[in-house]
Amino acid sequence: MSMDLNLLPSQAKFQAKKNQLMAMVKRWSYIFGVLWSLALATTFVWWKVSAINLASSQKDYKLILADYERASETAVLSERLKYQAKLVGQVLKDRFEYGESIARVSKLFSDRIRLKNVDLVSHNLFNVEGSADGIKGSDEVEEKIAMINRGEVEGLGSAELKFLVWSYNFWEFKMEVKSK
Question: Quick check: is 6 in a domain?
């Protein structure tokens, strides 16, 4: 006896299971492909938005940096100008004080005394050279020195006679005067 097995129904069942499995694989492949495409598209959109935000932030940063640099240059220039103005003011003040002191020393004596030279030696020290007519002229020089040393002459602190020499009918003298 030969056993004849009819495998046709079994083969059909196998074929049906194979087709079902293929349909399920196609469905899952389709779902996976759609999800993968959505993830890729989402990542691309997120990357593009981040790049745009970064570009915008960099542009804002450059604008703020440029404003800061202009402000810092302005501040430095302003401080430099203030410093220079302060120096100029100090120089003008010193020159005014020196000019005032020189004028005081120059107007210290009467017509009997002729000043030859008034030199600024240091910040408040002057060398004064001149000549005086006769005894009354030399007495006037000595009296002015005493008045300065007593504080009776405004703006001048002290005076010292360095030398007094009789020369060709005149008393030649040199003195140091300190202003206040």
Answer: no
Residue 2 lies in a domain: no
Residues recorded for the chain? 180
Name the one residue in this structure whose structure tokens are 């003008």.
92
Q: How far apart are CA 60 and CA 35, in angstroms?
A: 37
Q: Give the range of the structural domain holding residue 158, as residue numbers without chain letter.
A: 111-179
Task: Using a cut of 0.90, tell me whether the model's pTM lies above it.
Answer: no
In this predicted model, what pLDDT tens digit does every residue of 66-106 receive, in sequence order? 888 888 888 887 788 778 877 777 766 666 666 677 777 77
Q: How many of the other CB atoms lie within 10 Å of CB of 164? A: 14
175 within 8 A of 128, measured Cβ to Cβ: yes
Quick one: DSSP state of residue 151? T
